[in-house]
Amino acid sequence: MRSQSALALGSNMGESQAILEAAIEILAQTPGIFLAAKSNWYRTKAVGSPQPDYLNGCAILQVEISPQQLLETLLEIEQTFGRVRQEHWGPRTLDLDLLLYDDLILQTPNLQIPHPRMRERAFVLVPLAEIAPDWIEPVSGYVIKELLKQVDCCDVHLLMGNYNYHL
Question: Among 14, 45, 151, 166, which one is least packed by beta carbons within 10 Å?
Fold first, then answer.
């Protein structure tokens, strides 16, 4: 049986759009993971220390693996693209965050679902609302499009020339 998962992607080092597209391609080719939808890419201001703007987007996956296995897969893909965890909220070649997994609420030492800060982040909610506006965030009980109304979106800008698709 497949579960549905929401994923946030971000990059602000290197050829960010190419890195994000390649990460999506790797996910789509991973056994037990099926790409259901991908948002457009958005240029957003970085959180934390002064650094280049990010490209951000979201994807909806149908998965036949556990949340922990999915997290391990995401970490491996980040490492493939040279992700080094040195500075909290520092610049990165690739950031993959597991946002939602069905309506699961989970807290382990290395994984919290829903993602603990997703409700505060326009750079997550804007692309997620594009592809999953009616998904209920299980902690708040609000759908994504309602959560989006509660954040400031002025620093999230659609990257021109990219087009989303729903499979």
Answer: 166
Q: Catalytic: which of 83, 85, 119, 152? A: 83
CB atoms within 10 A of CB 162: 16
Catalytic residue among 95, 134, 152, 155: 95
DSSP 72-122: HHHHHHHHHTT----STT---S-EEEEEEETT--EEETTEEES-TTGGG-H
Is 83 in the active site?
Answer: yes
Token pair, residue 23, equals 């990460």
Residue 43 is among the residues annotated as catalytic for this protein: no
Q: Is 97 a catalytic residue?
A: yes
Q: Which of 2, 53, 85, 92 is catalytic?
A: 92
As a whole number, mean pLDDT of residues 46-70 equals 92
pLDDT value, residue 167: 40
> Cα 16 from chain centroid?
14
Q: Which residue in 2, 53, 97, 155 is the catalytic one?
A: 97
From 74, 64, 76, 14, select the one nearest 36 (Cα to Cα). Answer: 64
